[in-house]
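We were asked to recover a plausible sequence for a given structure. The inputs and outputs are reproduced exactly as logged, with field labels preserved.

PROBLEM: sequence recovery
POSITIONS: 349
GIVEN STRUCTURE:
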């Protein structure tokens, strides 16, 4: 174990204190007329000094890149404290989600056609390039279903592909019932030969323009598409089956994570901030501000959008939707599950 491993984690009471400070200050700090240069968001994490984690809670100010203090105006300096909570600065590049062609990198194991399709393979709306199939999910069954346990466990009537809005619903610009191709169009998918599902529902994303960023309440970039049981496999390539999912209150900084994605295949990373409010680019000048996000080290690239992210022991924590060369951004899986009303795994772990 890395000797500073425990200093990357926050205790429950420390997390509560810094979460409170974050909620009190984030809106004002990110106002356009007050936001320091290069700032793209703010989250919750630990303070780092001399390249090592201290274990102390901190408000993590997310910037595109760091600039020496002597080259910044006084108004662009990040205060040492906000709401009596110390700050730290984390460079994450400029987070981006979709809007461009996936890079031609690595061995394209997951860019081909496969049936049944597992999590990690190429997929996409017929008008986009390509993203990643996260996993197969199904509707949350009602509590009054014919379940011996009374917890909604039973036989699902429909099965869906889980991925991003910008992968399955073309960033809001799609209609329910539109064809979803596997592999995605960029990887040779054509309609109708490679049609695997039909768009079922998506959570609309609020964009600037026209809506000012301070009015955004985006939580997820997520969508599902209904397919046939025999065409979908709940296993994730190179990872296996998901054992359960984690509530966002239990997702902690410092946690090691993994994913399988269309472009970079199997990779691992570490959570660097939670409860992050962050501005994400979508191309053509469109920006969406997301709240309650997970920030991680960089372990993805274009085309990995839609990957399901788990702990090392296969507990789902997030849905990958954006990133840069130095960071990756995830939606909390609890938010994805509750807003889309789908089950990723029965157990809460």
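RECOVERED SEQUENCE:
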């Amino acid at each position: 174990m890395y000797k500073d491993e425990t200093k990357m984690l926050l205790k429950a009471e420390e997390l509560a204190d810094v979460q409170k400070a974050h909620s009190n200050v984030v809106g004002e700090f990110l106002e356009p007329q007050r936001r320091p240069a290069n700032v793209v968001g703010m989250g919750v994490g630990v303070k780092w000094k001399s390249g090592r984690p201290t274990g102390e809670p901190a408000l993590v100010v997310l910037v595109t890149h760091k600039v020496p203090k002597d080259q910044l105006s006084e108004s662009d300096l990040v205060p040492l404290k906000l709401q009596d909570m110390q700050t730290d600065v984390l460079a994450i590049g400029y987070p981006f989600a979709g809007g461009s062609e996936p890079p031609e990198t690595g061995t394209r194991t997951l860019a081909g056609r496969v049936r049944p399709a597992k999590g990690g393979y190429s997929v996409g709306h017929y008008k986009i390039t390509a993203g990643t199939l996260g996993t197969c999910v199904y509707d949350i069954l009602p509590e009054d279903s014919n379940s011996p346990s009374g917890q909604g466990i039973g036989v699902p009537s429909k099965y869906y592909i889980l991925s991003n809005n910008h992968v399955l619903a073309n960033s809001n610009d799609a209609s329910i019932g539109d064809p979803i191709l596997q592999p995605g169009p960029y990887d040779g998918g054509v309609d109708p030969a490679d049609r695997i599902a039909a768009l079922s529902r998506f959570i609309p994303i609020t964009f600037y323009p026209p809506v000012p960023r301070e009015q955004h309440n985006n939580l997820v970039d997520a969508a599902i598409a209904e397919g046939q049981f025999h065409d979908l496999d709940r296993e994730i390539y190179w990872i296996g089956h998901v054992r359960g999912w984690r509530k966002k209150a239990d997702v902690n900084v410092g946690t090691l994570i993994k994913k399988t994605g269309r472009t970079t295949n199997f990779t691992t990373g570490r959570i660097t901030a939670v409860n992050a409010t962050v501005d994400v680019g979508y191309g053509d000048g469109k920006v969406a501000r997301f709240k309650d996000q997970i920030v991680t080290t960089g372990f993805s690239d274009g085309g990995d959008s839609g990957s399901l992210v788990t702990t090392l022991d296969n507990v789902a924590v997030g849905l990958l939707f954006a990133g840069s060369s130095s960071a990756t951004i995830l939606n909390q899986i609890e938010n994805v599950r509750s807003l889309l009303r789908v089950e990723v795994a029965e157990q809460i772990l």
